[in-house]
Design goal:
The protein has about 575 residues and is an alpha/beta fold.
Length: about 575
Amino acid sequence: MGQAYSKNPVIVVLGLDYRDAMVREFTHRYAVDYDILAPTTVAEAQTLLTEARTEGRRVAMVACEYFADGDAATRVIADLHVKVPSARRIVLVPAERFRDSTDRMRDALTHGAIDASFLLPQGPRDEEFHAGIAELLSEWGHTVNLSEIDSTRIVADGPSADLSRIRDFLDRLGLPYRVYPSTSDAGAQALADAGPDPVLPVLWYALPDGSGTLVRANPTNRELGEALYGASGAVDTERVRDLVVVGSGPAGLAAAVYAASEGLDVLVIEAGPIGGQAGSSSMIRNYLGFPRGISGLRLAQRARAQAARFGAAFIAGRKVTALVPSPNPADPAQPHQVIAEDLTVSARCVLIATGVAYRRLGVEPVEELVGRGVNYGAAVSTAREMKGTSVYVVGGGNSAGQAAVHLARFASAVTLVARRPSLAETMSDYLIRELDGNPHITVRTSTSVVDGGGEGRLEWLTLRDNRTGIDTRVDAAGLYLLLGAAPSCSWLPSEVARDEHGFVLAGADTPWQSWIGGRPPEPYATTVPGVYVAGDIRCGSMKRVASASGEGAAVVPLVHARIAALAAEGGS
């Protein structure tokens, strides 16, 4: 193409009648950080993208005009996307074609053929347009994780379960990082700072205030939380909190936002990074108010910042190990005690919002490869390493569907494996349609993973057809296990009633023997006064982000009522 090589990512703009206007909009806002390339034909665009791949250039976005032949835009996008599957795909619609575009763009979005459509700006400073473009570019940047900031380094020689854990923690925090081998100059510098014979992987983190670096050899989640979120030793353990929230998924974060905004003293304790299981979702498309979707990372970041703005405090990377109920729940001088390893905090009210964990596959040869091609959860940080390979996602819920769509941006083939004969009972319809519309994704129902192996990392799997019993061996570079819900609240005392599967009972679901005056506890109230439950850990919950958020918010009035009753008791 005769253009000089640049390290900047590329935005490809393909237009006909409105080509100049499209180029102008992108050039004025993004030309400093992106190279705006505007081929005049589809063939020229194909050549340009082929050269970009050969040169190792990163294509962030492909923007195509909505032509008078409306179907042509999505066909062009599909043709170009084959060459740059990680690029964000958008269609720009001229105003006079808006009415004609509505049904076609809706259909393209529903089937995942494009990421967004925008009305072409009709004048200067169309900030709504540019907010959408910036949002998509931000998501692309996080997806490819090509950090040009070298303030956080991980030193590791090859994949491991600990490396995957640390990378996942940093990804869900939204902290850019680079991974270096120990033989590199940057890796050697970090190891020198770590002291003699450090255990890999090593985390090297330059403090934002420029006062030095933090170096941790194979840090635990607690060490990561204290290094990146702040030391839990700064928490005042003498004061009694109005509400301690255990878990920072959508339910816990919603409760923290609403409770803190209403003046309650709130502390959130999370065993991992803030965001819970939902924080690892690559893209949530059915959450109210986000028409283009929002990643679990962004949702968790915004909710945490919102709660912190209102005064909520957070402890990350520290596991709650026990709840000691008040010996006299009616006595305000005897609060509940929440024990998080060696830290004990007091609370008038406690919200259990720990969510659920993924069940284990239980196939020993596969379990031995966790962190070396086998991952529990979406493991967004590993997706870009699957480029050009064949990967498998096991699960039938929304998280599995979201992971498959995300992985299809990198892997040459993604197979979704589900034990059930159909996805309709467990997965949202919009995701099923997106899976069906993606040529890189195959769905295999009534199928189980029964074996796997490889030399040092995953190389193959054995799949069993549950209807016929026939086993098939397939090549696989990656396996992502999202195997339904297993409750994660074994630390709860026996006073908190649970069902036979371990989910917490609340409201009318509690045993009738615990009812007072023939009436059950309030909705979301457990069998211990002042202890509430919300989100996926609650028996009978919907297992959706929006419903979990609603439950977390609905607990706050109950907390207010509880605190008012305690205050009245203390004053009598």
